[in-house]
Specification:
By secondary structure, this protein is α/β, with parallel strands linked by helices. Helices cover 35% and strands 22% of the residues. A hairpin with a 4-residue loop joins strand 10 (192-193) and strand 11 (198-199). GO terms for molecular function: hydrolase activity.
Length: 255
């Protein structure tokens, strides 16, 4: 069996269409939507609505940690645009999801990341594409467990949940061969982004489950440029499968 795994797609429908080539199935660990591209400020929902110049200003404030100013700027732009901001975001998100799920190969097993809007994405699923969260599926004789979403942060991305809810999903998965999450286990070198120069949040519940159940692999994404892409916990190989929007190539798992 050969499984291709992607995470942090962030709108890369072109590369996603080829991500299943040569594989028996595709696994996607979330963050399908692109709100704003920190490398190209002309890409994403925000610049689509307000232009690249405003996106550059917004990214600059957030990168500098000036989140209150970024939120105030954003609020002013939404007020000037008129209407309900949620409607504008959801309309743009639906267009992205339609492109992503139309391009996504099948069979595909996926969970959502912290920037996703699950209730919108599910509307665009095609036959052969299955969403799992706190659930287990057998692929090629191995048990794959899926835990989606992210933990609460000062960034306030749409699909962040409380630690307790996240831990319940980890517990529901139980013992598996491959544990698939959007965010990493709480191991410092896996959480530090060397370009953004900050630590992202990881899951203590996931790390404890890895120590206790020892799956063969723990796969995740979320940190785009990690200090370390791999770490071993007992017999478990913890692997960041890579920033798919930037790389355009999947991680391959074979057995």
């Amino acid at each position: 069996m050969r499984i291709h795994v992607v995470s942090d797609v962030h709108g890369r429908a072109d590369a996603l269409a080829r991500a299943g080539d040569g594989a028996d199935a595709l696994v996607c660990l979330g963050d399908l939507l692109l709100f704003v591209d920190y490398a190209d400020h002309s890409q994403g929902i925000f610049p689509e609505l307000f232009g690249a110049e405003k996106a550059t200003e917004y990214v600059g404030l957030r990168t500098a940690g000036r989140f209150d100013e970024a939120r105030a700027m954003s609020a002013g732009l939404w007020a000037a645009l008129g209407g309900d901001p949620r409607e504008h975001i959801e309309t743009a998100a639906r267009r992205q999801y339609e492109r992503i799920f139309s391009a996504m190969p099948t069979p595909a097993y996926l969970t959502y990341g912290n920037v996703d809007l699950p209730r919108l994405g599910t509307d665009h699923l095609r036959p052969g594409q299955r969403v799992l969260d706190g659930e287990v599926v057998e692929i090629g004789g191995l048990r794959f467990g899926f835990v989606g979403g992210g933990l609460r942060t000062r960034y306030r991305t749409p699909n962040e949940i409380d630690d307790e809810e996240f831990a319940r999903k980890v517990e529901a998965v139980g013992e598996v061969d491959v544990l698939c999450c959007h965010i990493p286990p709480a191991i410092p070198e896996l959480l530090y982004d060397v370009v953004a120069r900050r630590f992202e949040r990881g899951s203590e519940a996931t790390l404890e489950a890895i120590r206790r159940t020892q799956p063969r692999f723990a796969l995740f994404g979320h940190v785009h440029q990690p200090l370390a892409g791999r770490a071993r916990v007992g017999r478990t190989e913890c692997v960041n499968v890579g920033h798919f929007r930037g790389r355009g190539t999947p991680f391959a798992l074979e057995w």
